[in-house]
Amino acid sequence: MLRVFAFDRIGVVLGDLYFVDPDPMPGQESPERGVRVEVRFVESQEHEGSIYAARPILIGEPIWRLDLLESVDGEPGSFDRTHHHPLMRGYEPGSRKFEKDLSSEPLAYLAA
Fold first, then answer.
1. Per-residue pLDDT averaged across 50-56, rounded?
2. Across-strand partners of 94?
3. CB 41 within 8 Å of CB 9
4. Which residue, 27, 51, 57, 107, is the most exposed by fewest CB within 10 angstroms?
5. How many angstroms separate the CA atoms of 100 and 44, rounded?
6. Are 83 and 67 in contact (CB under 8 A)?
7. Contacts for 70-74 with beta carbons within 8 Å, 24 or more apart?
């Protein structure tokens, strides 16, 4: 599943995840599952067609990422791997940042 909500020049991209980290941190060796939320730049592109043509839209680089993850072998709803990436370098995330409020109340954290 992938969902995109665009608001002028900023968009929110939501997608489901399941992956195994090839270089996990100690204690995080099991696969992870959940939802990724990214705030990204959105850019309307020029087009060569008629005035009736659809405009190409570019979903660009992420500004911030939130991973609502939990370990596959853990208890559902635990959010034990939930973190965010406050720094992005192009399309690559910076280090994971774990915060107690984020794991205990992830939707309230996201809303704030």
1. 89
2. none
3. yes
4. 51
5. 38
6. yes
7. 70/32, 70/33, 70/34, 71/28, 71/30, 71/31, 71/32, 72/18, 72/30, 72/31, 72/32, 72/33, 73/30, 73/31, 74/30
- Give the Cβ contact number of residue 16 at 10 Å: 12
Instruction: Report yes or no: 74 and 29 within 8 Å, Cβ to Cβ.
Output: no
pTM of the model: 0.85
pLDDT of residue 38: 96
Q: How many CB atoms lie within 10 A of CB 60?
A: 13
Inter-residue contact 80 to 68 (CB < 8 Å): no
Rounded Cα gap, residues 36 and 65, in angstroms: 7
DSSP codes joined into one string, the chain: -EEEEEETTEEEEEEEEEE--SSPPTT--S-EEEEEEEEEEEEEPP--S-TTSPPPEEEEEEEEEEEEEEETTS-TT--TT-EEES-EETTEE---B--HHHHHSHHHHHH-
